[in-house]
Specification:
The protein is an alpha+beta fold. Helices cover 60% and strands 20% of the residues.
Length: 119
């Protein structure tokens, strides 16, 4: 079951990225959005779709609004593209991993700089 879930997560990641890219290209969606991960529940009923946005806080807010508004359309397109019994209901969540990694990197740089100055 775990192997199937992992395969479905990869498939959803690829398909949702493709759908969003096409929506951006057609002009029905704006921004630079990348789906970074999909986590499907063990019972395959729900999925969390993690995404990142390149841009300002306003761009991130707009992307969250657009993804929420287009969730039904994206789900409909997924049903046409993926042939499984039931498509999990899904939600979009911002992936703040790059921002957290940047903050950690800055902390390490500051510690290294302070250590060099103390030596």
């Amino acid at each position: 079951m775990i192997e199937r879930t992992k395969r479905l997560e990869t498939l959803f990641l690829e398909e949702i990225n493709t759908i969003i890219s096409r929506m951006i290209a057609s002009g029905s969606f704006s921004g630079f959005i990348t789906v970074t991960g999909v986590r499907i529940s063990k019972d395959l009923s729900t999925a969390k779709v993690f995404y990142s946005v390149f841009g300002s806080d306003e761009d991130k807010k707009r992307a969250a609004h657009n993804l929420s508004a287009l969730r039904g359309e994206i789900g409909s397109l997924l049903r046409k593209r993926i042939h499984i019994k039931r498509i999990p209901s899904f939600s979009f969540e911002i992936d703040d991993t790059p921002e957290r990694a940047s903050r950690v990197e800055k902390i390490f740089s500051k510690i290294e700089k302070d250590h060099e100055q103390a030596s």
